[in-house]
Amino acid sequence: MTQTKIIPIFPLDLVLFPRQELPLRIFEPRYKQLVDDCMLGDGQFGVCLIDPNNSISGWNAPKSIGTIAKITKCKDVELDGMQLHIETIGRNKFKINKIISPSLVRPSNYDPYTVDGHQSISELHEKLGTKEKMYIRAEIESIPEIDDNVPLDKWEELVKMWKNKIVRQALPQIVEPHALDQVLEKYYLTTDMPSIDYIYSLSALGAKDPNELQPILEANNIDDLIQKVKELLKVK
Fold first, then answer.
1. In the predicted model, is pLDDT for residue 44 greater than 60?
2. pTM surpassing 0.85?
3. What is d(CA 188, CA 203) in angstroms, rounded to the nearest whole number?
4. Using one digit for the tens of pLDDT, what is the confidence trace for 82-141?
5. How far apart are CA 184 and CA 177, in angstroms?
6. What is the pLDDT of residue 79?
């Protein structure tokens, strides 16, 4: 029987891959509550790409496949405690089975970037009860890691496709081959022993939009993963 658990969910305009580092600045009251709860627990929450076609109680809804983020560091940015800076690292992928809606419906005039916006949410939260959760939660199940080896010839093919895409996108500007090699070296992607992490990093370098990375996160075996990266890197 598949094991499930309930975790906080943080919808973001990005895709987090396993073992990838993700720093975040937290300023909304609902996500400060999320971080506080995580710090009192196991320090974990789910990161999902925002689903633009859906909403939950007026808030951004998450895609159904995401990655667990583990908080490794948390500190106040300001003395007033209005902002937090957290450092996280991606762990395993998961699938959402059931969404648990937040206690608050998003006010029509809510502005998350203003003090008034924060105050209005805090006041609503106090009326509901401060133990109520302002953030989205979900019942999730873990997705097994892709642990197959990456064939070197497949990796070299993907690197070649990435270089070709960058060169074509830069036209009429000329990109020298050594400049692309320097980028690969900068991101530690020069290797004779590629792993899944190398493919994730190369994909991030080749994507213009986080929605292009979601299919790669959702790949469930090495052949599917390589094929989806090829589609991403294909010159269109």
1. yes
2. yes
3. 14
4. 789 999 999 999 999 999 999 999 988 888 888 888 888 888 888 888 789 999 999 999
5. 11
6. 60
DSSP 211: G
From the list 163, 137, 144, the residue with the least C-alpha distance to 222 is 144
Over residues 186-212, the pLDDT tens digits come to 999 999 999 999 999 999 999 999 999
**Rounded mean pLDDT of the chain?**
92
77: pLDDT strictly greater than 90 = no
The two beta strands, 44-56 and 4-12, are: parallel
Pairing assessment for the beta strands 137-143 and 4-12 based on DSSP bridges: antiparallel
Q: Helices 152-170 and 196-206 meet at what angle, rounded to 10?
A: 10
Cα-Cα-Cα-Cα torsion 7, 8, 12, 15, nearest 10 degrees, comes to -20
- Structural domains of the chain ordered from first start: 4-143 (2.30.130.40), 152-233 (no CATH)
Residue type, 224: D
DSSP E strands in 58-117: the ranges are 59-62, 65-76, 84-100
State both tokens at 83.
């902002």
Question: In sequence order, what DSSP letters do the residues of 109-175 get, joined into one string?
Answer: T--TTSHHHHHHHHHHHHHH-TTS--S-EEEEEEE----PPPPHHHHHHHHHHHHHHHHHHHTTS--
Asked if 213 and 15 touch (Cβ cutoff 8 Å), the reply is: yes
Cα distance between residue 16 and residue 44, in whole Å:
14
- What values do phi and psi take at 61, rounded to 5? -90, 150
Residue with tokens 């873990």: 142
